[in-house]
Amino acid sequence: MTIKRFTLALGSALLFSCATSVMATQDCQSNIPASTPAQRFNDQGNGTLIDTYTGLMWKKCLEGQNGERCVGQALRMEWDSAANLAQLVGSDNFAGYNGWRLPTLDELNSIVELRCVEPSANLEVFPQMPAVGLWSINQADPRAWSMDFDKGRAYENFKGAGKYIRLVRNLR
């Protein structure tokens, strides 16, 4: 009987710890001004956002997600696959536009919300954004750079690492 209770208690503890990690919430410091205020972005209603500060058009959702609230499983892939996917989407006229590509590290840095962590993103603008790394176009074989939206920091990674993808295009 004691082993049965122990197993039940251990199982409950594991279940709770897994649920807790999934339910972790973003932490923002309200005393710091937003670096990516929602009014800076114009939602076009077609899965795209225009950043009025940088003049870039972003896909609202990560690749693999869709809809107004970015539902679905985001795609995680190696850098070469991400670059190939960007080329395919870039010529596919998503939302009536071509020219979609992997963003530069500076472009990814421009959407980091400095007052928030886990994720360091404005969730009003980029819903369902996980606290994960996104690939940039910046690379130096055998590595490439990603922006980690856990704390909003850039990292150099082996290209074989799995990262997520948010595509961007120039308006001009």
UniProtKB/TrEMBL annotation:
UniProt signal peptide: 1-24
Source species taxonomy: Bacteria, Pseudomonadati, Pseudomonadota, Gammaproteobacteria, Thiotrichales
Domain Lcl C-terminal, first and last residues per copy: 47-169
Domain of life per record: Bacteria
UniProt KW Signal keyword: yes
InterPro entries: Lcl_C
Keywords carried by this UniProt record: Signal
Keyword Signal: yes
One matching Pfam family: Lcl_C
UniProt-recorded name of the protein: Lcl C-terminal domain-containing protein
